[in-house]
Amino acid sequence: RKPVEVVKEAAESAATKLTGAGTPVVPGSPGSGTPALEEPTEPREPLPPRPEQGTPETRTPTGAVTGCPASAFGQQGAFLTTANGARLRDSDHSLKAGPRGPILLQDHHFREKITHFDHERIPERVVHARGTGAHGVFTAYGTGAAICRAGFLKKGRETPVFVRFSTVLGSRGSADTVRDTRGFATKFYTDEGTFDLVGNNIPVFFIQDAIKFPDIIHAGKPHPDREIPQAQSAHDTFWDFVSLHTEAQHHTIWNMSDRGIPRSYRTMEGFGVHTFRLVNDAGETVLVKFHWKPKLGVHSLTWEEAQLISGVDPDFHRRDLYDAIEAGAFPEWELGLQVFPDNPEETFAGIDLLDPTKIVPEELAEVQPVGRLVLNRTPTNFFAETEQVAFHLGNLPPGIDVTNDPLLQGRLFSYVDTQLTRLAGPNFTQIPINAPHAPVNDMLRDGFHQHAVHAGVAPYRPNSLDGGNPFEAGDAENAFVDVPVRVAEAPKIRANPASFDDHFSQARLFWQSMSAVEKEHIVAAYTFELGKCYEQVIKERQLRCLAQIDPVLCEQVAVGLGLPVPAPASELADVTASPALSQLGAEWPADGRIVGIVAGPGADLVAVTAVREAALGAGLMPLVIGPHGGQLGDLAVQRTFDTARSVEFDALLLADAPGPAPGAVAARDAKAGTTAPTAIDPRVLRLIDEAWRHAKPIGAWDGGTTAVRQAGIADTPGVVSAGGGADAFTAVRELLAGHRVWHRFLTSIA
Ligand code: HDE
């Protein structure tokens, strides 16, 4: 067709879209000539948001809500508008010189939409890029009030919190279950100012001085030439660094233990790592270490599970946290303190409290609970909250102060500095998730992304123009306390205290505190990671470090690597094991644990329904696994033999021995050249086999007992063949209290 006809047609079609004073004819409405669509074709009330989905308030630095209506911050209301609030007629077609013509520069809506999109990403965190968060509440027991004046520790006080969990090394889109340290950062919105407890799930750190942080991170991140491996420490540069900077050996053995692959964020301990100083109402001080103790106990994946999950469900930990909160199985931790006298040496039981590569065993200083954290609300918008949240160690309320730990001192600088690039300017505390809940009355002004409209003319003090405001507070007005700690008269020097030279004794303490099965995992982890290195000299150097930790550990890893065992260390530290470091040997509540129930066409669905209800009633999360999606009778199927992998479940219940799908049999028989029938669907057999290999409790009844027999695991530890569903469930729930059936592999786990 000739261009001129096209232009004419377009003009006519545009004309038919306009009636009266430009009112659009809504497709599907009477007289519009277009067929009705299923989705709404004219404005109607949107579904009401859930109560927790309200748009967070945006505060000015004085704590007042800005004049900006909440609707400006969310997708609300019936009509699409520009960023300036003008209603839009069409957001699907750019303004062109005719339907086949070029886009016109004057299309301001097109330019606004594309420009905003082009700038949607902010730089990911340089470390801890991959993470997820949740809101919750911290309730104080009052037990900490005698040693700390911070109001949020006073008995019964409830403080809103936001927690972000993370891995360290991977990029924002990397898998959740890699072997790595996990971040555990908590923002307490106290009414005396925000308190950020920016911790990890490992109580020590790789380095003793913050100046080495870029070095350890450069070594842990992917190689700079080809940018591999992603989110892994199993590569040459990491092991090169930790074998040369032997202060890293303690943190590294924790990474190689099961702590490096947590089962869930809900089953992780958290540690403030550094020693902090608390001050009470009388001005007395103590030194403390912060601990988070999970209600569900500390549990991990097996290494094979972690690897499978990286492919099957890379968002495993993120999903687990969300699902648990949505299911009402709110994750819980107790905040505990190890309390030490504030002596001039800053040591306890001979341990240097300023050295962040050292713990104080709990047997020497008990962890005393001071409050409870419950996570009960998922974020409304990931970017606005989880991505933009900015933690900072200097966010301290009156009553909590820092120490001279050289790692902590360096972090006090880094966390604000990094936000200047990541959140593009100095006003990031005005972002709703970062905004304090305490009234703010600072004299910080202007800068990129300034949202406050500050009144007054005198942002300086003293002044006589703004009534002299603001005034400085004293003790009576609860001013922040910088504890006047004496600083030793000493030469300005780049050096560590002598006590920082002990790099191996606590790595040995950790090893000696592990049970047999945990030791086995540690050996396997070192063997795997070092086995991935290319440089023999690096492996040999790390073996020499292991010789300083323990000869058995060293020898077993050397054998696995096929390298000579280095000469034993001339002297090994004489350590007393700390049972509190082991994850095994106690029992924990099974709440929120995920139980898969296999039900095929032959299952007694009444019994399956009863077991499912019993599991829900006991606070567990049952998922019915069926041969196909949809329904099995009245029972909804949540996973199918195709979508379920054993790694999703903490335990398996089998109500049936479903035969294979006809197509699958035909395919297999064709391949194997046999017509012998397979008794059980191979996908179910794989489920059973993996669950058994990962030491998970397995319960069976009815046809399920046939399934476990056919899988060759009947009568092995932790596999219960019961007379009915109720008995099978009860037995499995009891086994879950120990997390896994470790006795399946070892007669003794001690
Ligand atoms: Fe961090 N760390 N870190 N770190 N860190 C960051 O801050 C840094 C250290 C930790 O979920 C960064 O906002 C230095 C120890 C967590 O948003 C950055 C040193 C511990 C998170 C930074 C350390 C941590 C971070 C990157 C050595 C455990 C994630 C983005 C002195 C006690 C917080 C950001 C979140 C994040 C610096 C060591 C925990 C670059 C210089 C020790 C949980 O500022």
Features:
750 residues; alpha+beta; 4 domains; 10-stranded antiparallel β-sheet; 6-stranded parallel β-sheet; 18 helices; 27% helix; binds CIS-heme D hydroxychlorin gamma-spirolactone 17R, 18S; EC 1.11.1.6
Concise description?
The protein is α+β, with helices and mostly antiparallel strands and 750 residues long.
Structure in words:
By secondary structure, this protein is of the alpha+beta class. The protein folds into 4 domains: 1-51, no CATH class; 131-434, Catalase HpII,  Chain A, domain 1 (Beta Barrel); 502-581, Hemocyanin, N-terminal domain; 594-744, Class I glutamine amidotransferase (GATase) domain (Rossmann fold), CATH 3.40.50.880. The chain has 18 helices and 22 strands. Strands 3, 4, 5, 6, 7, 8, 9, 10, 13 and 14 form a 10-stranded antiparallel beta sheet that branches. Strand 8 and strand 9 (285-294) form a beta hairpin. Helix 3 packs antiparallel against helix 4 and helix 12 (536-549) runs antiparallel to helix 13. The longest helix is centred in the middle third of the chain and has 17 residues, at 406-422. The chain is globular, with a radius of gyration of 30 Å. Residues 1-28 and 52-72 have low confidence and may be disordered. CIS-heme D hydroxychlorin gamma-spirolactone 17R, 18S is lined by residues 125-128, 131, 164, 166, 183, 185, 198-200, 205, 210, 213, 273, 389-391, 407, 410-411, 414-415, 418. Residues 125-128, 131, 164, 166, 183, 185, 198-200, 205, 210, 213, 273, 389-391, 407, 410-411, 414-415, 418 line the site of CIS-heme D hydroxychlorin gamma-spirolactone 17R, 18S.
